[in-house]
Amino acid sequence: MEKSGIEMLHFDVMDGVFVNNITYGLPILEQVRKTTDLILDVHLMITDPLRYVRRFAECGADYISFHIESESDTAETIRAIREAGAKTALAIKPATPAETVFEYLDQLDMVLVMTVEPGFGGQSFIPETVEKVRIIREKISSMGLDIRVEVDGGINDITSECVINAGADTLVSGSYLFKAENMAEAAGKIRREEI
Ligand code: ZN
């Protein structure tokens, strides 16, 4: 990833409760932190993120995303992430309206719009989510804020075009990059760079 010019390592944490899958957690993040200087973008798909954000920050997370649909209080969790010294991101599932994040925008560094249902890799992009990216980007611009809009799920050289046009500037890609023969070239195609 470093050699391919990738900016961030997106680290999906799943607890088997918030989503039907279990991945990895704190000890793995701590080890990953020791091996790379890439920005670590930790996406918490867990039921009670408030309980864990400080520890994820201590283990090296640069960004911490948590879901507005989780059971933790949103404002309190944002505060806890900031206090722990990490950048703060709020994530929404495909069925959650874009407007739900508006009241928190001035406290965020990033909004994560899920472009598939969270839980598993390798899923197909949901086209209806593009409009949410546009609505959130327009709101951010109208408020004069400087916040990343990240998309996660089914991002490849085809789907990246519409989300970039809608205002996404941070694109997460798993299967497409890791199945590519040349990751640097694949990343360039996602960014719609001329190669
Ligand atoms: Zn993710």
Q: What is the element layout, followed by pairings?
A:
Layout: E1 8-14, H1 26-35, E2 39-45, H2 53-58, E3 63-67, H3 74-83, E4 87-92, E5 110-114, H4 129-142, E6 148-152, H5 159-166, E7 170-172, H6 175-179, H7 183-190
The structure holds zinc ion.
Zinc ion is lined by residues 10, 12, 43, 152, 172.
Looking at this protein, list some descriptive labels.
195 residues; alpha/beta; TIM Barrel; 7-stranded parallel sheet; 7 helices; 31% helix; globular; binds zinc ion
Q: Explain this structure to me?
A:
With 195 residues, this protein is of the alpha/beta class. The protein has one domain (8-190): TIM Barrel, CATH 3.20.20. Helix content is 31%, strand content 19%. It has helices spanning 26-35, 53-58, 74-83, 129-142, 159-166, 175-179, 183-190, and strands at residues 8-14, 39-45, 63-67, 87-92, 110-114, 148-152, 170-172. Strands 1-2-3-4-5-6-7 form a 7-stranded parallel beta sheet. Helix 4 packs parallel to helix 5 (159-166). The protein is globular, with a radius of gyration of 16 Å. 38% of the residues are buried. Zinc ion is lined by residues 10, 12, 43, 152, 172.
